[in-house]
Model the fold of this input.
Amino acid sequence: MANDLFAIPVERLRGVSTQKAGELHALGISSVGDLIEYYPFRYEDYRVRPLHEAKDGEKITVQGRIATASSLQRYGRTARLLCRVTVDGLLVTAVWFNRAYLKDQLEIGRDITLTGKWDARRRQITVAESEFPDRGGAKTGTLQPVYSVGGSLTQAWMRKKIDEALNQYGAMIPELLPAELLNRHALIPRREAVLRLHRPENTKEGQEARRRMVYEELFLFELKLQAYRAANRKQPDGIAHQVKSEEVRAFVSSLPFALTDAQKQVINEITYDMKRPYAMNRLLQGDVGSGKTVVSAVALFMTVRSGCQGALMVPTEILAEQHARSLTKLFEPYGIQVGLLTGSLTERKRKDVLAALQMGLIDIVIGTHALIQEDVYFRRLGLVVTDEQHRFGVNQRSILRKKGLNPDVLMMTATPIPRTLAITVFGDMDVSTIKERPKGRKPIKTYWVKHEMMDRVLGFIRREAALGHQTFFICPLIEESEKLDVQNAIDLHAQLRQALPELAIGLLHGRMTPAEKEEAMGEFAAGKTNVLVSTTVIEVGVDVPNATLMIVMDAERFGLSQLHQLRGRVGRSDHQSYCVLIADPKSENGQERMKAMTDTDDGFEIARRDLELRGPGDFFGTKQSGVPEFKVANLVEDFAALEQARDDAAELTAKPEFWTSPAYERLREYLRREALFQGEPLD
Ligand code: ADP
Ligand code: MG
Done:
C-alpha cells in the first residue's frame, strides 16, 4: 500500500528520539499507524459541572473566582497552599499540595478552574489540577485521553505525540468496513472514529466512536475466523480413517464400565469426523470427571486400527504417566503399543522412544511438551489429542499437528469455555460437549472455613480415612517463589504428620525429582498413603477415584477455574466427596470466589463467574491461549456486537465473490498484519 501508516516508522515524528522510540517499541508501537491505534483506556473528565451535583468524595471540575488571599503552610517537606474560591455562589476552600509556585498567581478576583476531590463536609476541594481561563485553560471543558505509558514516557508527552500524529497523518486513516455494513449499523467513518476515540468532544461522541471501533475489531476478527474455516474445510486432504464398527464396538464393550450416553454421543461425532477425508478440528469439552480420557482412548484406538499412530499431549508429567498407565491397561489386550515421552527420560531411553516412533513400533505416544521437540518424527501420525488443551498455546498445538500430514485433531478441556470465548477462541473448531457425569456420581459438597477451624478439618480427614477414603491437601503455588511454595508444602506435611500420627501422609511438590514424584503419586494412587500434601502440580487431570476429600489451604490465592479443577480431583466414584476451602479472603473478589465455589459445582457456571470476575484476558491465565487481545472491544461487555459481527462476517463470506472483491482486497493487508492467532498468520 502506497500510503500505509504502518510503513511509517514512529521515529519520523518530530521529537521522537531513538530513546523515546525504544520505549514506544516496548509498548508495541513502532509505526505511526501503531501510535494512531494506541487508544486511551479511559478519559479524564475536565468538563465543568455545578458544584451541587458533586457527591462527597467525588472528583469534579468547577469554575470559580478567587475570593481571598492565599496562605502557604509548610509541614516538613509538605507545602500546603490554601485559598477561598467562590464557586456557584458558595465559598469553598481550595487546597493544593506542593504547588507553592502557584501562590503568586492566586490573585483575588481572578477566575480559576479547579479539578479535584470534593469534600462536602469541609466544603473543600483538594486540587489535582487547576487552570486559569485568562491563560487559555486548555483542558477545561474537555475529556482528556489517558494512555497506558511506561518508562520515561509521560502522559502529557504521549497525548502530544498522538495529537501531532493525528494532525499530520489523520487524513490517511483508511476506511476498512464495506459501506453496506456502515449503513446497516449506522456506524461513523473510520477516520472520524479514530479521531473521536482520542479526543471525544463529549461522552456521546466517545461512545459512538467506541461502538464503531468495537464492531470493526470484532468483524475483522470474525472474518479471519471465517477465512480459516474456509481454508480448513475446502481441501479433502485429511485422513479418511478406515475402521470397522464391530471392532470399535468390541473395544468399547471391553472397557471396565458402560459409557454414558453423552460419551457415546461425542464418540459418534468424532467417528464421523475421523472417517471423512477432511482434517478433524474438534474441541471436546466436559466438566472435570465427565470421562474425557476414555473418549480419547476410543479415538486413539480407531486411528491405530486404521494403520496410523496417535499422540496424546498433556501439560504435566504426572498426567502423562497416569494416562500411560491407564491406556496401556486398556490397549494391551489388543497388542497396541503405548509409549511415554517426557522431559525426564534418560537420553538413551529417549532415543529408543524416538526411533520406535519413527519406525512405527509405537502406536500411541503419550507425552508432555517433549512431544513437540524438533527431533520427534512419526511414521504416520493420524490423530493428535491434547488434554487440558487450554494449558497449551496455539503454537504448541500446531507444531504437534504439523508432525503429521493433516492428522485429525481432538482437543480436550475441562475448563468449560463460556460461549463468548468459545466463539472467538475456538470459532474455527467444531465443539462436542459431554453434558453428564457418569451415573451414580453425587455432587461434591463444598465448604468454606476459616483457618481457625483447622481442628475440625483434621477430624474430617480422620473420618474419611476411617471409611477407607483418601484426602488431597493442597498448598498454594506462590508464583513469585517456587522455593517458598515448596517450603510451605514441606512444613504442612510435617505438621500433618504430627497432628495425624496414625495416618500415612505423602508429599508431592515441583522440586522433587520425576522419580520421587512418580513414587509419591503411585503410593497415593495405590492407596498406601491416606493423605497427599501437594502443591498445585496435581491441579489438572489427576484421577484417583478413591480420594473423596479435597482440602485447599489459603484457597483465596486461587482463581475460580483453578479451584474448580482442584475440586474435580474428587467426586470420581460413587462415594460422597467433599471439598473444603480454608480461606480468610480480605478482598471482595476473594469472597466472591469462595461463595461461587460453595454455591455451585457446575463447571459452566463457575467459568461464567470466573470470566466476570477476571475478564477475558486473564481467564486462561496464559497469554498464548489464543484469546485475542482486542484494543477496544471487551468480550464480556460487547457480546452482542460479537454475535452481530459474526453473523455479518458469515453472511458476507458466504458469497463467493466476496473473496475477490475490492473490499476484501483492502482488508487483506490489515488482516495479515494482525495475525489471528499468535504464530499463525493468515496466508
Ligand atoms: P476427565 O473428563 O476429568 O478427564 P476422566 O476421564 O479422568 O475425567 O474420568 C474420571 C473418572 O471416571 C475415571 O476414573 C474414569 O475411569 C471414570 N469413568 C469415565 N467414564 C465412566 C463411565 N462411563 N462410567 C463410570 N466411570 C467412568
Ligand atoms: Mg482429564
The CA atoms of residues 533 and 666 lie 58 Å apart. Residues 257, 259-260, 263, 286, 288-294, 414, 438, 541, 543, 545, 572 surround adenosine-5'-diphosphate (ligand 1) (CB under 6 Å). Residues 621-625, 676-683 have pLDDT under 50 and may be disordered.
